[in-house]
Amino acid sequence: LPPQSKQSSSYSGADTTEEDSESLDDMDFLSRQKKLQAEAKMALAMAKPMAKMQVEVEKQNRKKSPVADLLPHMPHISECLMKRSLKPTDLRDMTIGQLQVIVNDLHSQIESLNEELVQLLLIRDELHTEQDAMLVDIEDLTRSARNFPPLTAPTLPSG
Asked: Which GO terms describe its biological process (predicted)?
């Protein structure tokens, strides 16, 4: 069928009235909107647990401190450093050189964590901007869908 006859055949059914096609379009739009809203809610609900899991995985994957290699005779120190739970007695038993190695390592960890934080904050800001744009688009689409005149069936030329 040519395109015009396909259109006319879809609108020419005896049981389809103008009101029915309008309500079908409205229901179709509303059902899609509800489906998208439900998906968005589910994604938002999953975001926090997923982020926590990702942080835990990254903690486990984090490389062990190079201080552990420099202090092989003190394995409990390197383990305490990884857990960030050094005790004053541990520090008293160390030489100034060993303490300086620990301080340098902690400074480099702080610097790398700060850089990572800045990158994550930039990504978060970009995602917030994208989210805001999407929400504005959704609002505009919803508003314009409510303002559309009802669809009417095209008339075929007689002849």
From this structure: positive regulation of hippo signaling
